[in-house]
Amino acid sequence: MQTLRLVIGLLMTVVLLGLAGRRLFHLYRIGKAGQPVEPGRLGAVGPALKSQLVEVLAQRKLFKWTGPGLAHAAVFWGFCVLLLTVLEAFGSLFDPTFQLPLIGRFPALGFIEDLFALMCVLAVLAFVVIRFREAPKDQGRRSRFFGSHLGPAWFVLFMIVNVVWTLLLTRGAQINAQAVNSTDNLPFLRGAFLSQGIASLLAPLGQHTNEIIETVALLLGLAVLLGFTLFVTYSKHLHILLSLPNVAFARRPNALGALLPVTSGGKEVDFEDPDEDDLLGVGKIEDFTWKGLLDFGTCTECGRCQSQCPAWNTNKPLSPKLLMMGLRDHALAKAPYFLAAEDERENLPDEVRALAEVPLVGETGYAGDPLAAYVPGGPDGVIDPDVLWSCTTCGACVEQCPVDIEHVDHIIDMRRYQVLMEGAFPEEAAAMLSNLEHAADPWGRGASERLAWAEPLDFEVRVLGAQGEDRIPDDVEWLFWVGCAGALDDQAQRTTRAVATLLHEAGVEFMVLGEMESCTGDPARRMGNEFLFQMLAQQNVETLNEVGATKIVVTCAHCFNTLANEYPQVGGSYEVVHHSTLLSRLVAEKRLVPVARLDREVTFHDPCYLGRHNRIFAPPRELLGAVPGLRLAEMPRTKERAFCCGAGGARMFMDETIGTRINENRTAEALATGARTIAAACPFCITMLSDGVRTLRPDNEPDTGVEVTDIAEVLLRAVRPDLDDSRPQDATP
Ligand code: SF4
Ligand code: SF4
Q: Which of the pair, 435 or 40, is modelled with greater confidence?
């Protein structure tokens, strides 16, 4: 019997692992067909190792969701420990009394193995409860599992249970067959409390029967395990294998903040003199980098990203999860084509060759069913344009994804191709892009109006060049970057004046660029128009370098992100602070003293490009906390889970015609706190939330008494109660 079980066991292993290996090699070839990654991503061994410890081993991101996180960690850690039992099982194919060197002598090993086996089963039960509670059939698109492959997920839970019971049955019979409790054989099994329990049940059957049960259960267990391994290579559970490299090669610290420069063949494209054959963005699946293709294959379909996505939550067809799944399925379907040599392609089946012509982005005619907006097999497009253009680049998906998938980078790469190569983008954004090109601001107002905001102030704002200087004088500490909205939008002008007044009050010497300032290029870049971004960014960097700017304070979260994180890509490196940081510092240093009580509740909306993208959560709260009498009422979705206002990703300049409005969703949440002041720290957010307050206002109620304002204006009221410039016209004081 020993020989028979060795032969059957080895045969199964060779066949099933061979099939799994063949599949993995195919997947490796698909990844290899992708483009090289951008310079600098590889080679950082320390951070890659740290990410394996923190993200994979410690399951950091999974624990953001306590219940599912615990269940997943139990299965993950359980399977790590159970790998030891796999070694023991293979060893016992050769020798029924095989034990692991050194640790096999200790009963504690058996105890730990059984304990983790039990944890796996309990975790499976927890997953069953979670999957029933969050079932798409009950919750529709509100379920994070909407659109996920549910059958394979249930099958995997079933297989985990099979792995565990066959293991325990093998060990229970082994204890009797090898007389573990009365000899020196297999000492680790003496501590295996569950296996011992099964052994007592099987003991009356006698040694010979136990030997047969041991062999049958061992072979069955190996078949389950090897079959499970093979199944994994064909299913979404590929993440078990792929999440390790995916996390290791992810952008550090994460794929938020700066967008990546456009690269072609692993080299940055020079937009002043691009090569004829430079790839500008992603137009077909093979144009993604190998890391992109790895991302798609690693998606676990857990739906954490989908559950947080503002586009998905307002009934738009974009789901970051469905996007990853759609691109993965398209890559798998098209692989035989792009992996074949050119002269072999004509021999491929028609349906495979047809995929070569399917554009990544094309009208799918999804007509309300979001699942129909993703068509991996074409023929008109893999994803609908409404999927691509619904993204606000808020980063909630990247923040949530437990396997470090970089959704925003992929969305922007596809937008780049649409804009730069196809000239295809939402019509209503054309005016904004043209204004940026001709007037260097999104509204086309031009440089001459950039100083109008300062006229009502009772002190003089220093403007570079006004006194004939061509560099920032030594006595000026900060260059105040006003931004297009801060200079040209009525409501944002109040914030600009409030910040200028507070800096003046604190005795901080600052200066503005006035007419020399242009849009940072953020909306152009997030639309995918990298040419225009490069033009504006290079112009600004040239100006900033010429005038000797070193320290810049900025009120707009988008300007902040671009100046701080993206201008280094075009040769501009400065110390950039958001006004929330500088003002809270001035309050802490007592250079600004809030004296007046503001007896009201205030809720704070975290701008995505301040909070999630740049981790600035504390300064705005510290600033509000310094105002006497003010009570902060947090919204349920706050800090890294804050819901977008709907303006990012250049969506501020596009109509929102599908589903419900993102700004109204967020405004309703803010109003539900009961606060009468909604504070933010970005002019785009303030515009969106103000619109939200106006549209959610009950009919016939001209003034709800709710104001939307910047944190600087709130602080100004406490520091200089004599000034009322910052108070909104329609708000009840
Ligand atoms: S960035 Fe925001 S809007 Fe875009 S897919 Fe991710 S969660 Fe959705
Ligand atoms: S992209 Fe990440 S968060 Fe979204 S479903 Fe896939 S694994 Fe989960």
A: 435
Question: Residue 649 C-alpha to ligand 1 middle, in angstroms?
Answer: 9
Q: Which two tokens mark 305?
A: 């990203």
Chain-centre distance for alpha carbon 553: 27
Integer Cα distance of 303 and 136 in angstroms: 11
Q: Alpha carbon of 327 to those of 216, 254, 339, 366, 386: distances in Å?
A: 42, 21, 17, 17, 15
Counting ligands in written order, which one lies closest to the CA of residue 328?
2
If asked whether residues 309 and 444 sit together in one domain, one would say no
- Domain total of the chain: 4
Q: Domain holding 330: CATH number?
A: 1.10.1060
Residues 361 and 389 in one domain: yes
What residue numbers bound the domain in which 715 lies? 593-719
Q: Give the closest ligand to the alpha carbon of residue 409.
A: 1
How is residue 511 annotated by DSSP?
E
Long-range contacts of 563-567 (CB under 8 A, 24+ apart): 563/481, 563/520, 564/614, 565/257, 565/258, 565/614, 566/258, 566/259, 566/525, 566/537, 567/520, 567/537, 567/540, 567/541
d(CA 293, CA 330) in angstroms, rounded, equals 11
The residue with tokens 């016992």 is: 92
pLDDT band at 138 (very low <50, low <70, confident <90, very high): confident
pLDDT tens string 15-27: 999 999 999 999 9
My answer on whether 195 and 70 are in the same domain is yes
Question: Does residue 731 surpass a pLDDT of 80?
Answer: no
The residue whose two tokens read 């798409």 is 136
**DSSP letter assigned to residue 267:** E
Domain end call among 550, 570, 586: 586
Residues within 6 Å of ligand 2 by CB: 299-305, 320-321, 324, 400-401, 403, 405
Whether residue 444 lies inside any domain: the answer is: yes
Dmax of the chain from CA atoms? Answer: 103
- Residues 351, 368 within the same domain: yes
